[in-house]
Amino acid sequence: MTRSARRTRRMLQVSGLGTAALLTLSACGSSDSGSSSDTSDSSAKKLSGTVNVFAAASLTESFTTLGKRFEKEHPGTKVTFNFGGSDTLAAGITGGAPADVFAAASPKTMKIVTDQGDASGEPTTFVRNRLEIATVPGNPDKVASLKDLTGAGLKVVLCDKTVPCGAAVRTALDAAGLKLTPVSYEQDVKSALTKVELKEADAAVVYRTDVRAAGDKVEGVDFPEAADAINDYPIALLKDAPHTEAAKAFIALVRSAEGQKVLTAAGFLKP
Amino acid sequence: MTSLHKPGAAADTLQGASRRRRTRWAPLPLLLPALVGLAFLVVPLVALLVRAPWRDLPEQLASPEVWQALQLSLLCATSATAVSLVLGVPLAWVLARTRFPGRGLVRALVTLPLVLPPVVGGVALLTALGRNGVVGQYLDQWFGVTLPFTTTGVVIAEAFVAMPFLVISVEGTLRAADPRYEEAATTLGASRFTAFRRVTLPLIAPGIAAGSVLAWARALGEFGATITFAGNFPGRTQTMPLAVYLAMQSDPAAAIALSLVLLAVSVTVLAGLRDRWMTAS
């Protein structure tokens, strides 16, 4: 056993060395960018370092745009993103992932992080998202309302109730007093949309922003019950953020008029 | 790997060897990594048992969704194994007993689903057999048959990832089996198909059994291709692995409970069948 323990320790040492080397490298990277921004520029606050943003997958397009804008406005900074399902991201943050900012697709997933005491200050709602029906291009089945989806012979996919978009769909259906049997409960909003893009399903209920992002591969149909199932998107600064100032500035950009313009263009609603 | 190619033969040798040198111990440099390897494979499963919500377990398992998912899993895995047997044994025979140009390539293609990420398999099935797929659009137009989102779709997805296990296993056994028995049968007047049926099949039965068990177990655990190709609907396409994955998003305790069921079923079947078939001479 001692021999195996020693071997294990040696293996750990080797991998530890590797990690240390990586850390040193990344530290070098960030200190480099720090020193380069030492030459004071015109902007009021000198910002430096890498802002690590964990954001819901539905924010991919708009946040990427905002990240580029931020880097341009603050030379010497860098914004890196980790897009994914809000649940997965929250689990990563509570598990110790190195993140500065968390933008979630629902207050419920944000609560996972705040309950653990990982957020610094109160999260704020920065946008809201509304459901929309996505049909195959041209809407051949003439879907005009949520009720039309309950018609026989129509293949509809919904999000599973365990993910935010599925919970929202359920609320909307309850509000309309409708019972809808889909062909599948998909594990996230993107895979629901993909089934329509591939024309395997006739329609899906997804976020308006996803319909917008899919371009002309799907057609969006608005329905009134969506107003009862609006999703709030909270954003928060994280407690262990290594670059607090830059992270704060990024959140400020997201909430600024300029940031809101990018987000509403993507189909998000103002909070 | 050896056990994958000719499980029957390998198991025989192992059993024979252990019978001959029962009292001899493995050298330490082999024994230690072996034990670490064993712990690496077993500890995560033990962790499931440790963290299992034992008190709520009866309630968790009594829900109709769990039984629906389990029944569907067993039905689909068994059907997928049947499909693999009907198509896979002849395929293995062709690969082992005939010569044709490009046979190496064909064998490589057959084993491809073994290394392909299952999600890629699901995407491939969707582009081939989906309602809008290369083949699927004609199934829809001519026969009104669509495969995604159906139980048949689950069976197809599972067979796609499981059949290679059977083919490889049977092909290995066929290569190890002496072809002279078949030749003798044909010289005595039997047709090649009769010789296959009456001589070859009984000869390679242990290999077929071993391959079936492997394929069945692989089909039972299939997740990626199923959720991609067949979607997720309770009672129709939601198998146990899908139920576990979705439960994990909202209720980890339920996911652990479901995992335990799947684990128990797999262990029971693998242990039972391995003893009876894989080591039978």
Describe the protein in words.
The complex is a heterodimer of chains A (271) and B (281). Chain A is built from 9 helices and 10 strands. Chain A is α/β, with parallel strands linked by helices and 271 residues long. Chain A folds into 2 domains: 132 residues, Periplasmic binding protein-like II (D-Maltodextrin-Binding Protein, domain 2), CATH 3.40.190.10; 98 residues, 3-Layer(aba) Sandwich (D-Maltodextrin-Binding Protein, domain 2), CATH 3.40.190.10. In chain A, helix 3 packs parallel to helix 4 and helix 8 crosses helix 9. The termini of chain A are far apart. The N terminus of chain A is likely disordered. Chain B has 281 residues and is mainly α. Chain B is globular. The N terminus of chain B is likely disordered. In chain B, 79% of the residues lie in helices and 0% in strands. The chains are: A alpha/beta (271), B mainly alpha (281). The interface between A and B is medium-sized, with 23 and 23 residues. Chain B: It comes from Streptomyces citrinus. Chain B: This is Molybdate ABC transporter permease subunit. Chain A: This is Molybdate ABC transporter substrate-binding protein. Chain A: It comes from Streptomyces citrinus.
Concise overview:
The complex is a heterodimer of chains A (271) and B (281). With 271 residues, chain A is an alpha/beta fold. Chain A contains nine helices and ten strands.
